[in-house]
Amino acid sequence: MKWHGWGHPHVTFPMEDKPDLWPFVREKLGMSRDLYHPAVKVEDIKLPANRLTDPKATLKELEALLGADRASIDDFQRLVHAFGKSFPDLWRARAGIVATAPDIIAWPASHEDVVAVIAWAKKNKVHVIPFGGGTNIAGALDVKEEAKLPVLSLDMRGMGRLLEMQQDSNLALLETGAVGPAIEEQLGQRGFSLGHFPDSFEFSTLGGWIATRSAGMQSDAYGRIEDMVQALHTVTSEHVLELKPFPATSAGPDLARPFIGSEGCFGIITRAWMRVHPIPASKRYVGYLFKTFEQGLAAVKACHEADIKPSLVRLQDEGETELAFNLKSPKPLLKSAVEFPVKKLLKTLGYTKPAIMVVGFEGSDQQTAHLASAAASIFKKHGGFPLGDSIGSAWSKDKYNTPYLRDYIMDYGGIADVAETSTTWGKLAELHGAVLAAVSVGCAEENLPGYVGCHLSHTYVTGGCLYFTWALQGGDKPLERYYRMKARVTDAIVAAGGTLSHHHAVGTEHLPWLAKEIGPGGEAMLGAFKKAFDPSDMFNPGGLTPQRIHPYLGTNRG
Amino acid sequence: MKWHGWGHPHVTFPMEDKPDLWPFVREKLGMSRDLYHPAVKVEDIKLPANRLTDPKATLKELEALLGADRASIDDFQRLVHAFGKSFPDLWRARAGIVATAPDIIAWPASHEDVVAVIAWAKKNKVHVIPFGGGTNIAGALDVKEEAKLPVLSLDMRGMGRLLEMQQDSNLALLETGAVGPAIEEQLGQRGFSLGHFPDSFEFSTLGGWIATRSAGMQSDAYGRIEDMVQALHTVTSEHVLELKPFPATSAGPDLARPFIGSEGCFGIITRAWMRVHPIPASKRYVGYLFKTFEQGLAAVKACHEADIKPSLVRLQDEGETELAFNLKSPKPLLKSAVEFPVKKLLKTLGYTKPAIMVVGFEGSDQQTAHLASAAASIFKKHGGFPLGDSIGSAWSKDKYNTPYLRDYIMDYGGIADVAETSTTWGKLAELHGAVLAAVSVGCAEENLPGYVGCHLSHTYVTGGCLYFTWALQGGDKPLERYYRMKARVTDAIVAAGGTLSHHHAVGTEHLPWLAKEIGPGGEAMLGAFKKAFDPSDMFNPGGLTPQRIHPYLGTNRG
């Protein structure tokens, strides 16, 4: 991945087929060409000194343990393992500010390697931060100042095998360093799919998904990652756990659970028995247009009430719909499929705050036909105007590209961030309004234009996830402005009854609000977990510790 | 409930409409009238001395804390709170052997009461065993010899209120002492249902379900209890936890999870935010007959593969089908609906090892019709012969009565027990055969006739639950014979890849096998949980401790 941006080093957001997009963004944020603000050169970055007493000797030790080329003290490796992809991570990287970094990186190739490395780390008093795809945008991967000892970054990507399948029983045992495409490819050869497709799918790993309680785009059909996990194998400084994949059990509490959402703070998740499913015969993505976001919300809720379950729902509010219109390609197909009916509707039917929805159906041909038709009649009742299949295909084509867009904005000194939460159906509309207002007030206070948009995705019978994107100019002190805005947005989410994160985890960025969310009892329990699994604070020190003082946000907000 | 048997004191298994049943059972087990073996009189039972220094003074203290009549040191109350409903529990009760009992019982009326009682218990160095319906059949409620201090039985049934509903979001906040009917009644008044119907539904409590990771009869549609829990409030000796019911969150690990399946060993679950659903418009139970149990298994699996989900599947093997035939009523309706086609099939089509299946569908009229018809064509392909609705109604009528049947057998000195497990689809048939063989070999070794039957219920895309019932004569030393048989059955389950329990919990009866099931790492983690949540071993001492030496089974079997 890029050391200071999203994704493949030679890939950028595909602008060539979206001539209106960049002008729209620049205009929205009041950005001009003279704000161009390139990143420093990687060779100019000065990393903190290696804290290992004898880095080369330690390197040799680890290579002896794991094999040649399975460890590194190289500066570039230290740099790319020093943080994830949060705005502060990338802003600091672009500015050449790297205050903390791991001292050594290791690539284990098996569960047994991990057992050996952790025993080595315990003996040698070294912190360990597990590293998957490095895509976390909440700061979960950052080497924090609580790391008082040398830090080993354990890059899991050398462990990506499908080890065993019970096809009859829809079960697969996977190594947790497997990245999304490798998982789908290995399962796909056997006709199966995991069905977990987060935005970061191309880079992020199974272990990262589990450690952050991730949810993918098709979670409405296949569940969140925690719903798919049937059993885990883990290595802590104290125990090696190898649970069995029973379909269900009441033999005591689920011992795998504390690791789901543990953000690398308790130990290493090495292997996971995952529930998989045969690749569906039929996949269909269609578009609808609603007069308002609220109308779309009601339509999606009505689907749940009728037990009609799309695999994916992505309902975009006015802000995101405006952005989506500017994503349009000049190709005739999309022109006729989207632009024409949309414009017509906007004009003649009074769609003043339009909300586009992409909805997906997966299953047998019969099932997708049944679901699509049942959903169509519900959406129609709620004022949804069908936009056909092309908008769905357009969305699907670019579905992993959105994160690249931020790099353009950062090139011009801008700030762009996302904030996602979930709340119950009864509170969704209010929370949506509250966050839009918070960004709007925030931009006014910063005396700047800005962008905010939102989509509903990942829905449940009890509620859904709202995913906000906001952006504005960075000015002289972008990091401070970012944290002011982040605080406004998160305060609004918490006040309106949303959780700190629906699928991005706590990291450093949401930590100041965690104590409020889980209460004093929850905080004490989290502390008890940590003491039980990681008494020597070996793993990801400073993570999931609500009393940690955030340099900008302080502690215990909300 | 009866102090030495199942259910309401004045209710017995309804035999009057099943003239063939009792003769069938007696014949199967070789039982005769002269084996009649009544329980001792309750007034002849001598309880162990109360271990409180001054029981009356303590009683006054607790009454001052909770209100008059909210505590008791009465012998009958001590007796009925001393154990659950396992075979050993009831056999000892009938024989008048009560070696351990709680010293005082308290009935809190609110979360705040529980906070006060636990603080009192901590200060006064008293063990606490939470008590729900008292229906656990794995020994989870037994006062064990590890209880070195006086024991308080905390009877939660004074806390049964529906406290809050978010109907819009299918959420209900319930006190955990609510028994099944009280939950359904309170929710039903608002048009909702929890949908959790274990065999013990009439007596057991929400808290008991959560503490034992229960699954109810309709779990295929509405999930296991752990799938329904959205958030818990708990009181331990160290913390008070009050989590919020977000639809989903990635803000750290799920802190409620360790309590699900905690069997009273970590603390008290006081309130639960539960996912509920509107009462379905349509419910339909229909019967099928398969030539073999294995054929039925394949048919159910095919349903999952086609994503056709009944709310309930109960596929009975040859042994249970024979029992079911003897459950038939002499009423004309059932005669024509079941007996006639069954007999005809048996004769003309070679159904030599017939397997009856009851399958349920719930939802809108349209959905149940769609599901029933889709399932029918799958079952037909797998050789299922439709038996119509009456067998389903007959099953539904008696669905909570089966546990009463054991009392008849015990009246004649017999042993009857159930063993349930889950395993993956690929192993179900083999596990089924292995357990039948184990009972068969066991009966031969005991030189006695016996009964064994099994049904499949609670199915998942990864596998299902097998529920075995076995019975034989007790002889001179019924408890020792019981434990020999229990060991044979459980050894067979474990060897064939089944879990110790799918929904009855570990208790005392499965504890000797737990270390094998969860491995050394799991055992260490369980110990770490206990130390974190209950450092003074206040709660249910001896529970969930794999190294505990079982008086008959020893330790670390399997």
Textual characterization of the structure:
The structure is a homodimer of 558-residue chains. With 558 residues, chain A is α+β, with helices and mostly antiparallel strands. Chain A folds into 4 domains: 37-157, Uridine Diphospho-n-acetylenolpyruvylglucosamine Reductase, domain 2, CATH 3.30.43; 160-278, Uridine Diphospho-n-acetylenolpyruvylglucosamine Reductase, domain 3; 282-399, 2-Layer Sandwich (Alpha-Beta Plaits); 403-512, GMP Synthetase, Chain A, domain 3. Chain A contains 18 helices and 18 strands. Chain A has helices at 21-29, 55-66, 75-80, 87-95, 111-123, 180-188, 206-211, 219-222, 225-228, 293-305, 318-325, 332-348, 365-381, 390-397, 402-411, 425-446, 478-495, 511-533; strands spanning 71-72, 104-106, 127-131, 151-155, 162-166, 171-175, 192-193, 229-235, 240-242, 268-275, 277-278, 282-290, 312-316, 355-363, 385-388, 414-424, 450-459, 463-473. In chain A, the strands form 4 sheets. Chain A has a 7-stranded antiparallel beta sheet, sandwiched between helices. In chain A, strand 5 and strand 6 form a beta hairpin. Chain A is globular. Chain A starts with 20 loop residues before the first helix and ends in a 25-residue tail after the last helix. The model of chain A has no long low-confidence stretch (mean pLDDT 94). Chains A and B meet through strand 9, strand 11, strand 16, helix 16 and strand 18 of A and strand 9, strand 11, strand 16, helix 16 and strand 18 of B.
